[in-house]
Design goal:
There is one protein chain. The chain is α+β, with helices and mostly antiparallel strands. The protein contains eleven helices and 16 strands. The chain folds into two domains: 273 residues, L-amino peptidase D-ALA esterase/amidase (4-Layer Sandwich), CATH 3.60.70.12; 124 residues, ArgJ beta chain, C-terminal domain (Ubiquitin-like (UB roll), Roll). The model has no long low-confidence stretch (mean pLDDT 93). Its main location: cytoplasm. Belongs to the ArgJ family.
Length: 414
């Protein structure tokens, strides 16, 4: 389908959708005993790389490794990802593991270790079993394939507490040349604005300068990954990598022209889709909860208000109970730090079951609790708050807070 009438079409696919990208996965037995737990992405041609990383002061070794790779300017060729153990709080040994993983990939693929990115997700503090990691790398190299199935397999192998794999791809034109962009991510818990326990990998065959590739990504995460929250915990391992190999053959984007803006719109669709998939698969959740703030004076004001609501545990519990407890939403807006007049706020709930106004000018209207419960019982629920101060708006995404969230995290290490 054509998204927003901009000539950007969502297609079936993920990290292997763009030309020249291959993927593979394997069961290395790192922590899980009954599933694939390692994945690899490989580009036939050198890529420009861009990345954004956790804001947590405690940074996992792979985050440090990838930051070095991205900032070094060295071309990127491969990404090796493992699930089960995060390689976080592992000291000098942890950095050594990254180097060993890169060396193993370099040997298996015939590329330089400087061109290998690494990513880990799982339990913090455990040391990686490097014999299994290196065996997994060797096993994946001959399995690399550009098929849809290989990309989907990779997206499944990087899951931890996720209940479903997450991938998306889009096709669009730059200067009359067809370009493809695809991505996959994982993330379900320890998810909070300023990136989350999430790993996201986006690949494109577009030709674009490294500087603009990084700028496009750094700008876009502000409105996508940084607008989701599941539980208020910012992870040690958050990583978003964007790789561009130029195989589409478009005229290289070196300035902020129309092609650049089209590229940014495509990137936003990919990242927003992946971000919403993570929020909607929050640990134990039953619903994706979207909050839109409209009529704001500035976009920043709208973002602060929207984030505050999706981070409110009381609001999230009300969504789980399908309870139109609008006071909790107004309360969360009130302590957000953003200034607004509560006596001007209009609030609506909407979902596939319909839309209804809950408050007008800060006061409850006469509404049907039964209809409100029906609207709030859908798997995707939206609250829209109009603060009537201007034309700016923003959206944030979270999920409901359920009994299962506590169960999952009470015994995560066992």
């Amino acid at each position: 389908m054509d998204e927003t009438g901009m000539g950007i079409k969502i297609i079936t696919g993920g990290v292997t959708a763009a030309r020249g990208f291959k993927a593979a996965s394997t069961a290395a037995g790192i922590k899980y005993k009954d599933r694939q737990d390692m994945a690899m992405i490989y580009s036939q041609e050198p890529c420009r790389s861009a990345g954004t990383f956790t804001t947590n002061i405690v940074k996992a070794a792979p985050v440090k490794w990838d930051k070095n790779q991205v900032t070094s300017g060295a071309p990127a060729r491969a990404v090796v990802i493992n699930a089960g153990i995060a390689n976080a709080c592992t000291g000098e040994e942890g950095m050594g593991y990254c180097g060993q993983t890169a060396e193993a990939a370099a040997l298996a693929l015939g590329i330089s270790a400087e061109s290998v990115l690494v990513a880990s997700t799982g339990v913090i503090g455990m040391q990686l079993p490097m014999d299994r990691i290196t065996a997994g790398v060797k096993a994946m190299a001959p399995l690399l394939d550009g098929s849809l199935e290989s990309g989907t397999g990779a997206s499944r192998a990087i899951m931890t507490t996720d209940t479903k794999n997450k991938e998306v791809a889009v096709r669009f034109e730059l200067g009359g040349t067809t370009v493809t962009m695809g991505g996959m991510c994982k993330g379900s818990g320890m998810i909070h604005p300023n990136m989350c326990t999430m790993l996201s990998f986006v690949t494109t065959d577009a030709a674009i300068s490294k500087e603009l590739l990084q700028e496009a990504l750094s700008q876009d995460i502000q409105d996508t990954y940084n607008m989701i929250s599941v539980d208020g915990d910012t992870s040690t391992n958050d990583t978003v990598l964007l790789l561009a190999n130029g195989l589409a053959g478009n005229k290289e984007i070196t300035e902020k022209n129309e092609d650049y803006h089209t590229f940014c719109r495509a990137l936003k669709i990919v990242n927003e889709t992946l971000a919403k998939k993570m929020a909607g698969d929050g640990e134990g959740c039953t619903a994706l909860f979207e909050v839109k703030v409209v009529g704001a004076e500035t976009k920043e004001q709208a973002k602060i208000l929207a984030k505050s609501v999706i981070c409110s545990s009381l609001t999230k519990a009300a969504i789980f109970g399908h309870d139109a407890n609008w006071g909790r939403i107004l309360c969360a807006m009130g302590y957000s730090g953003a200034q607004f007049d509560p006596e001007k706020v209009d609030l609506y709930f909407e979902s596939a079951a319909g839309k209804m106004q809950i408050i007008k000018d800060g006061v409850a209207v006469d509404y049907s609790e039964e209809q409100a419960t029906r609207i709030l019982s859908e798997p995707e629920v939206t609250a829209v708050a109009d603060i009537k101060m201007g034309d700016a708006k923003a959206a944030a995404w979270g999920c409901d807070l359920t009994f299962d969230y506590v169960k999952i995290n009470a015994d995560y290490r066992s």
